[in-house]
């Protein structure tokens, strides 16, 4: 027994004599087998079909998803969504197929991005950046609180002190950094003396170059240069070390053993920085003053005896206390930021590198910001 072969799909548009609209008769099989021919028919008839035309779907034979897609393309998703209103005689399953295909083809159009606005995009980017900075500072404050809580707990129990790790980190962060800190501050001291002598020579006051070098290094340059060097050298090392341990799941192993990663990894590093940065600041102050002394002796005919006499006579002790007093605050922030960025790293090497870079940027930013705030505060207080 052979089945009759249904004709391929066709489109016939018959104008109405009494109105400007027409009747569009859709007949035959609308299946994937006849897709190429049906596509040509749809392209030809699309320019003639209007929204006011009446559509007759009763003569349609077989219908699959490919044919339904062409019908939706011809008549539009909006009209297919109202299929129940103008073609209620169609079988329920055929109506469901046409509506489903229409909804699927309509989603990309409905989901198109709105027209972009340059100013709105800039403001949105600024808002996201501000929100990210705010969340970052909240996380930092929380980590600082957790570190201080663990520190106060450990201090009261000497058996939990990790002296070996503390000494190792003091050597890494302090002793190994002495040459670079001393050399850099010596050169900066020489530069400051040269600049001061150049400017003050126009006023016949080159003798005050001694005061300029002493004030700048006692209050600002000594602690600031040492802190920036440790932010680039030590904060990055802390972030990379802890980030590598996290990527190797060593921190998970520490927690599995019932130990605290804050106590084991963070506290020795923080305490080492609290010890070493004041020492490096003192070394930086001395090296900077020595650099200024060399320039004064060679270029300004100010003898070392006169240099130290002016220091003792004109420079009070409070300038040194102001500079050295900022060192523990900077040290604590640099160490905490470096450790926090290490804990925030994920398992990939790229993440470790990104958070290592972020630790350096954040540390330097926080150091300079706090130094500026402290300078304004001390100036208003007259210290």
Overview of the structural elements:
The chain is mainly α. The N and C termini lie far apart (110 Å). Helix 8 packs antiparallel against helix 9, helix 9 runs parallel beside helix 13 and helix 9 runs antiparallel to helix 14. Strand 1 and strand 2 form a beta hairpin. Strands 1, 2, 3 and 4 form a four-stranded mixed beta sheet that branches. The chain folds into two domains: 101 residues, 2-Layer Sandwich (Transcription Regulator spoIIAA); 256 residues, no CATH class.
Short note summarizing the structure:
The chain has helices spanning 35-46, 65-75, 77-81, 83-86, 92-110, 118-155, 163-173, 178-200, 209-247, 250-256, 261-299, 304-314, 317-344, 349-381, and strands spanning 10-15, 22-30, 54-56, 60-63.
Layout of strands and helices, then pairs:
Blueprint: E1 10-15, E2 22-30, H1 35-46, E3 54-56, E4 60-63, H2 65-75, H3 77-81, H4 83-86, H5 92-110, H6 118-155, H7 163-173, H8 178-200, H9 209-247, H10 250-256, H11 261-299, H12 304-314, H13 317-344, H14 349-381
Parallel strand pairs: 2-3, 2-4
Antiparallel strand pairs: 1-2
